[in-house]
Amino acid sequence: MDRLSRPENxxxxxxxxxxxxxxQVAEPAAPAGLAQPGRSRPGALxxxxxxxxxxAPAGRSRxxxxxxxxxxxxxxxxxxxxxxxxxxxxAAPAGLAxLRSEHPGSPARRGTRRARAKSVIFLFMxxxxxxxxxxxxxxxxxxxxxxxxxIPTFGRxxxxxxxxxxxxxxxxxxxxxxxxxxxxxxxxxxxxxxxIAFVHSxxxxxxxxxxxxxxxxxxxxxxxxxSIGAWANYGRPSSNQNLPGHVVxxxxxxxxxxxxxxxxxxxxxxxxxxxxLRTQGTPILDLDPPxxxxxxxxxxxxxxxxxxxxxxxxxxxxxxxxxxxxxxxxLAYRMQSAAPEAVDLSQEPxxxxxxxxxxxxxxxxxxxxxxxxxxxxxxxxxxxxxYSGGGHNxxxxxxxxDLVYNHSLHAGRTDxxxxxLLLDLKQRGLLEETLVVWGGEFxxxxxxxxxxxxxxxxxxxxxxxxLAGGGVKGGIRVGTTDELGAxxxxxxxxxxxxxxxxxxxxxxxxxxxxxxFQGLDQKLVGVEGAEPIQALLA
Length: 538
Hints:
By secondary structure, the chain is α/β, with parallel strands linked by helices. It is built from 12 helices and 19 strands.
């Protein structure tokens, strides 16, 4: 067979994000139904197809000749184009349906229980939002503003015995029937407090971005371990076979420190890795097939590849990477139809786009991601991480310099979209089965980092996160920090407790869900184990 040169790879257009902002609610229309891409097996007549020589469809006959013409080079070209997209879990095609069943650990070892949440949306405020300027009201801070006092802190500058207090720069007001105090940074979100459970007493192991991000996303401060999205899909595989089970939506400024290590599958099959989707243009770069490869030929190539992989795998039962890669090819094929439909926000009525803030320059970008997250939840995607902030310093919530500028910027971009997401999920009846989590990798200190200015250093000793929906009580607050918000003092919870709570709401026992690696039954909550935060559970 003649070797042909690899088809030219389509270019990688750079994302060109834009920003905008938004108004208030109107009655939403029912969600648009998911269009399921269909296909016929080779040899079957499709509508409008005519029969070719020897009973083969004319189109298929031409397609088979094209397959032979493409030869190894054409097949490699398809594989090359498919493999470049970082694809995640999906049900395998015929003959490869064993993909999930061959994950180490039977359902019995995955610790399944009754699920209260079907999906998780993690709203990740990368950089570390200040708890004392957002949701942890500390009146004492106002009177100490500008004074140097003795108060131990732990940040990127190490452990310090005291410093100059920076009082809150925004007024706090009570909202809802629960009367929870929320900063003026979040006036729209304040109206949703009766559906939110605030935990004011989280602590983490590291005050450094890279390791803290890994800790929040993977449970460890070192790289190489699976992300919580991978664990969620391992224990509860996504119900949608046409979209990834684990999706990541990044900020226009870029990704967080450590990048893809935050949504990796680690030592688990590659099929569980998070997939980054774009809210404009092609959802996944290099997803589209070569221009000269029509659907019928592509289908024949994938079927042939699946057959070869199946025969190869039958002699190599432990070749998990092979099964994962075969499933990725198949998922890429199905996503060519499903992904563009899922990210097509034009299907949404004007009232919904205004609810999220798509019509305002300030909020437009984050609004797109929040609305897309809801559409993915409707389509059965298990875990979605939505990042606010990318890069470093003022490109994210990392307010070392001008706190007012930094937090006004990022809260202004996210307040309306997040409130819109909660309202939209609730009025569609989706909030009760969707767990929404908000927070960063750590909080910030009550004292100034420098001799002048309002910037705050990192704080891993005590910070606030909140959860809503998915079997979590609303209108409550759990745990406290000291009177100035420097460290958690009552009902302290480690990041592992957050992970345990998320897994529990998905119907998974966090202390039983395990994956064998390097002679150990590895767990998201570590060998130490962790219990869900019982006060949150509805």
